Amino acid sequence: xxxxxxxxxxxxxxxxxxxxxxxxxxxxxxxxxxxxxxxxxxxxxxxxxxxxxxxxxxxxxxxxxxxxxxxxxxxxxxxxxxxxxxxxxxxxxxxxxxxxxxxxxxxxxxxxxxxxxxxxxxxxxxxxxxxxxxxxxxxxxxxxxxxxxxxxxxxxxxxxxxxxxxxxxxxxxxxxxxxxxxxxxxxxxxxxxxxxxxxxxxxxxxxxxxxxxxxxxxxxxxxxxxxxxxxxxxxxxxxxxxxxxxxxxxxxxxxxxxxxxxxxxxxxxxxxxxxxxxxxxxx
Length: 283
Ligand SMILES: [Zn+2]
Prior knowledge:
The chain has 9 helices and 13 strands. It has helices spanning 23-26, 30-44, 68-79, 91-95, 102-118, 138-143, 211-227, 246-262, 271-278; strands at residues 3-10, 51-57, 83-88, 123-128, 148-149, 157-160, 163-167, 176-177, 192-193, 198-199, 202-203, 232-239, 264-265.
């Protein structure tokens, strides 16, 4: 069978995470951010433009990435063979244990999908901020035309102020159709989960994984794919703020090159064709 990678970049910036700052000061520097996203595009060209950039939305600024300069970049990503997706940072909700506040989550998703689709952009993928996910959001994604989720980091769980907001313990390491009752299990929803590539305790999380470990993961996935009864699709993760450093840009480019020796980079629009071939798979 075949091994496929999806290069994903979460569109966050440094100041956003400085929660002690005022809302105004947590907003990004436009010139800098435009420059970093242009670097993303340049690097993505080394894998045929197959970039999935997750556009950030949060209470810090809902309209920020709807500015014409950014929309031009989203269109460029789409033109070179990539896609954009929805990245909701709704920490206000999960800190209050209300990640299942579906009205708010829907509003957050629509704050991007509606205006950006009106611009002719296609959005079919979602990733929660901090990889947070609540099973009750599955129908919300379905009715908003989102059919792929990228929040799964198999084995990960995150406590935030005493609340468990991300629980991926026991989740499959290859793609699966999510279960309405448990996001970590195979089921009958319309949402296909694409997990972060993981072998042993190491993941294709560029920001925190050495190049030798990325190589180890790619090699192991390729080995697994040879005996697997279905294709393997996994994601690789980095963030826009990582693109600020020339050394990190070099690392990302090298990580992409290593993976491309063992598998093929695709965009999210190519997933249905691959999934259709085999239907859902078992772990
Ligand atoms: Zn994020």
